[in-house]
Amino acid sequence: MMIFLTSVKKMxxxxxxxxxxxxxxxxDVFYWSKLPNNEFTNKxxxxxxxxxxxxxxxxxxxxxxxxxxxKSQMIADNVWINVRAEAADGKDSKVxxxxxxxxxxxxxxDLINSNVLTEKLEEQLGDKVIxxxxxLQIDEPDIRTKRSWHVDRNPPPTFKAFIYLTDVDSxxxxxxxxxxxxxxxxxxxxxxxxxxxxxxxxxxxxHRYIGxxxxxxxAKKGTLIxxxxxxxxxxxxxxESKTRYxxxxxxxAEKFDDGKEFELGKPExxxxx
Length: 273
Description:
Blueprint: H1 2-33, H2 39-43, E1 45-48, H3 54-67, E2 73-76, E3 79-83, E4 95-99, H4 106-113, H5 116-125, E5 129-139, E6 158-164, E7 176-178, H6 186-199, E8 224-228, E9 233-235, E10 244-253
Antiparallel strand pairs: 1-8, 2-3, 3-4, 4-5, 5-10, 6-8, 6-10, 7-9
Helix pairs in contact: 1-6
């Protein structure tokens, strides 16, 4: 009897989530329809070369190297490193992220506080956004545990500003991969959500019903990519050489921001180095 009741509760929750997903997709249609018709809103991303000075890129890589840890922990006041190898899902096991990374370098902190990234994204999007955190992602070679196509979250959208700190000249060096226009693949997203609910997979997995894809962005250090994170994206599964360093700045549309501080992957305060 208990097993039956548990199954019924699970089915009710899954049905409610799926219905809510349909409602959010409809709302998402209206959200994007009110924005400018440009490269960013159509493709879901835009690439801006030579945004960051090469010397500053090299300097930030060194700051990252100096602060890399093998276990998740607080590095400084409100700065922490999250080590993906500790996650139960076993995905992206060679990835580390240092959150609020700008607090470790004055030049970067000045750049972030100048709001230049926020203003440039708002120009592309045609809507107000809130910067939640600036992080450094350290992505070591890995051809075994890369998560396949997914979204950061289902609608409403969030946004990121990626800044390459090292040259990525080959698919083997870990380029960011995203499918142009897939932020508007509403039926495919709903089909994936439905399948995820039935199979118990992560609700943000999007690798089904899209066929074989090989989309990726090669770029020199200093390149800026604005992206909406409802795009179907992944880390390169062919990343077999060279550690990639990249700044990742997290944004929310002002109308969808809950006002809470960013705390993804934040360990307990006592876990200081």
